[in-house]
Amino acid sequence: MAAARQRRTHDVPTTTAFDAPVPTPDERKAAAKAIRKATPRSVHGTWEPATDRPDPVELLVEQNRTRVPELVPLRFGRMATSPFAFLRGSALVMSHDLAATPDAGIEVEVCGDAHLANFGIFASPERRLMFDLNDFDETALGPFEWDVKRLAASLVVAARANGFDRITARRAVLDAVAQYRDWMERYSAMTHLEVWYARIDVRELIEARAAAAAARRRLEAQLTRFEGKNHLKAFAKLTVEVDGRRRIVDDPPVVEHVVGEDVFVPRLEAVLAEYRLTLSADRRALFDRYRFVDFARKVVGVGSVGTRCWVALFQGPNGGPLFLQLKEANRSVVEQARGTELATHQGQRVVEGQRMLQATSDVLLGWGTDEPTGHHYYVRQLWDAKGSIDVTTLRPAGFGTYAGFCGWALARAHARTGDSVSIHGYLGNSERFGESIADFAEAYADQTERDHALLVAAIERGAITAII
Q1: pLDDT, tens digit (0-9, with 9 covering 90-100), for 197-251
Q2: CA dihedral for 378, 382, 388, 392, sign (positive or negative)
Q3: 241 burial class (0-12, 13-18, 19+ CB within 10 angstroms)?
Q4: What DSSP string describes 336-353?
Q5: Spatial CB neighbours of 160, under 8 Å, sequence gap ≥ 6
Q6: 3-34: pLDDT as tens digits
Q7: Could you tell me if 97 and 70 are in contact, meaning their C-beta atoms sit under 8 angstroms apart?
Q8: Residue 294 pairs with which residues in a beta bridge?
Q9: How far apart are the C-alpha atoms of 333 and 350, rounded to whole Å?
């Protein structure tokens, strides 16, 4: 078993002084207000690239050095399709940029990649559909502003891609930040246990927010589709029977069996053996009922393309399938940009971060190590009623509403892992922080478009190979 990662600053210390004095909410709120003198909320509105800013394309090229070489052109091809695709794939670039911007010094467990496509819908263990963050590859301790700024910038870039005007894009950012601020105020008035239990039920959210009947019908149709995206659907779509045995269907380069897979099977078994030990006893018993059938490499996402990712098929005692995804975890871009201590096990970092940030997480979430290579993996179920809203289909009003949902979910995540009272104290009740973030988002969207153009130019002159 890999050694435990270093203790986070908000973990319970080895020796806990239960009677240690804790500043009151009023004291913490007053202290946060005082921070505004050193770091006014207006400073978050500026973005100007430094003269020594790292070349974004060079950062991405360097990041790819540890990735599967034959998949790197596919990553660049996906990122080149649009500025929004570039933003999705360049969390490392933005983290380096954010490291050069001011922050209030209030830390939380950040998502690290909180663009609007990394929010979505999934089923809780009780099979209720929840809305929450759904990507945690880059999670780490960091300034709360980093997630807010990445979400805001993604809203402007996506709004431009949808053909919305500047007013619509700015209003979406203001809606997202307003929801973040207002919900942070609500969470600051709760006990921390109440915050921990808080969740966003999708059907309740629709009832409360989707007033138009047509919009409600569209959302209900999407929810029905998400509920049907389960192991049985994956079994029917991703497998075929060959000589009496189910096999994962090859669909290169997205899904394919690899040369020398027989050599990898013992290594896969070792990863899963370690993974099994990271599960609680009841979930270990659940996993033990399944037997391994097949595995294949599967390309996922935009920024993740090139990382090692496998899908493994298991068969249950009553005929039902189980699909697990084993995804490589590398050093968080937040840790890289801040120069903070390297996590002992990157898969464990992802799993712990997800469990802290999400209201309810996959029951089979765990981690393991491919010892011969030293690659770290986290493991989760594939297609367990998961899905994301296609933001390209949203109209201006729906886009703003969705932006607000994302702001709410981000506030809930930060309130779980940070000090909601301090964040609320710093934000206050005015629009100052929101207006500043909207200014930043517009300026950084311009930067993203320039960076995307640099990547396209590098591809066109042959400096970078891309599969378009």
Answers
A1: 999 988 777 765 555 555 566 666 666 666 556 556 667 778 888 887 889 999 9
A2: positive
A3: exposed
A4: HHHTPPPPS-HHHHHHHH
A5: 83, 169, 445
A6: 333 434 444 444 556 677 888 999 999 999 99
A7: no
A8: 313
A9: 12
Separation CA 155–CA 171 (nearest Å): 10
Structure tokens given for 18: 């239960």
Contact 314, 379 (CB under 8 A): no
pTM: 0.91
Amino acid at 206: I
Q: Is the CB of residue 255 less than 8 Å from the CB of residue 248?
A: yes
Q: What distance in Å separates the CA atoms of residue 439 and residue 335, rounded to the nearest whole number? A: 26
Distance between first and last Cα of the chain: 41
Query: Is residue 73 reached through a cis peptide bond, with omega within 30 degrees of 0 on the bond before it?
Result: no
Burial status of residue 332 (CB atoms within 10 A of its CB: 0-12, 13-18, 19 or more): buried
150 Cβ partners below 8 Å, 6+ apart? 91, 94, 98, 113, 114, 115
* Tokens 């954010």 found at: 98
The residue among 465, 421, 430 whose CA lies nearest residue 144 is: 421
- Listed residue (418, 440, 395, 334) closest to 163, CA to CA: 395
Query: If residue 19 lies in a helix (H) or strand (E), which one and from where to where?
Result: none
Give yes or no for a contact between 147 and 228, defined as CB atoms under 8 angstroms apart: no
Compute the CA torsion angle 168, 169, 172, 177 (nearest 10 deg): -140
Q: Are 83 and 466 in contact (CB under 8 A)?
A: no
Q: Are 32 and 421 in contact (CB under 8 A)?
A: yes
* DSSP single-letter state for residue 359: S
Is the distance from CB of 3 to CB of 342 less than 8 angstroms? no
Query: What does the pLDDT look like over 117-157, one tens digit per residue?
Result: 999 888 777 778 889 999 999 999 999 999 999 999 999 99
Read off the amino acid at residue 104. Answer: A
What is d(CA 107, CA 440) in angstroms, rounded to the nearest whole number?
20
What SS3 state is found at 465?
coil
| φ, ψ (nearest 5 deg) of residue 181 | -65, -45
Cα(350)–Cα(367) distance, integer angstroms: 9
Tokens of residue 82, six digits: 């649009």
Q: Closest Cα to residue 342, out of 1, 3, 4, 5?
A: 5
For residues 202, 351, 114 and 97, what is the CA-based torsion angle, rounded to 10 degrees?
A: 170
CA–CA separation, 59 vs 464, rounded Å?
13
